[in-house]
Amino acid sequence: MTNPFSKDSWSEILEALSSNWFRTLLTAFGVLWGIFILVILLAAGKGLENGVKKGFSGMATNSMFMWSQTASKPYKGLPQGRRYNFKLDDVEALKTQIPELKYVSPRNQLGGFGGANNVVRGINTGAFNVYGDYPEFILQQPMDITSGRFINYSDIEQKRKVAIIGESVKNALFEKGEDHIGEFIKINEVNFMIVGTYRKTSNNNGDVEEAQKEIYVPFTAFSQAFNRADNVGWMAITAQDGASITQLKEQVFEIVKSKHTIHPEDDRAIGHFDLYEQFSKINGLFIALNAVAYFVGILILLSGVIGISNIMLIVVKERTKEIGIRRALGATPWSIRSQIILESVFLTIISGMAGIVMATGVLALINSLLENNTSPDTMFANPSVNLFVVGVALAILIISGLLAGLIPAQNAIKVKPVDALRTE
User: Which positions, given as ranges, span the membrane (predicted)?
Assistant: First the structure.
């Protein structure tokens, strides 16, 4: 029996494919183009995913933000339309009653984008968001501390009037190179000492620069300085690893509604933004995009495989006399079949690998261009494919090659030696 992997078999394969090299190149191009499109589509999807998820960079995505609104239903003698505030004991109740919560950070806010100037340092003024926070908040929305430090529990307990300012705030209030640590700024006429500066890597509604225009002070000092008593403006709540804030939020709402005598079915009384839910939707979107990329790429690849199958049928027809002679000399059906299939698989893999190499070159060029034109707001970053995708592509190529050669191979072994020898 002829060994399909012998040196003679490979010499025959190369001779058969090079006998009409132009036809072979045209046939191979279909598979090359299919695998090229598949890799590029998957890489483009990954690049878009990287760009979008960059906006969540460093954030505790298993989190939600919650704030009080107006009660929309009367309950236990209390009227519809009443306003209420979260309290500090709400925070303790949530921590105690829901152990699956990792962080419950109360927050208060002053000022805002486009508001009146609320921060003064010498002759420089600015309108900035000012937040009263606990130390845990930096674990929920990480930031790079570029100098000094963040809030600590000594600041909370002693109600220290200290502030951590964004790099953009520093640039607005201080001259370049001027010392800022230990200096004072006035927030709504109250002096706070700067103990640190930060820079955020994630964006703020798509605006990285705006994310640097914030000031953080201890929650207790904020409440004392601006007469907030034990009121809480809103909360940042993060679930433990392995738990889902989306599944826990109904328990959170029930506790808060009970403490503030709100109708259990009043869904408008508490506002919230579920970051985990939004992040999960984005993940689902990119899973769908990858599925579409695979579908489109495989369809294009299939058209190339059909082209190879058709050419192999022509090759078998051209080699009818040769096949007849081999059969007459004792060649088995398996040796004939394996030779045709091997030629098909070889052509498919070679053309497919060329497509992968070409796609890799294009991706390297794109990444080089992106590195030289980086922007914090870019929604496309590092398009790439991993080894798993390459492995899948190779598996698709091998299966495609087998399928492309199967029908021609079956036709080849059906040729009777006597009929083949009569063929001109």
Answer: 21-44, 291-316, 345-366, 386-407
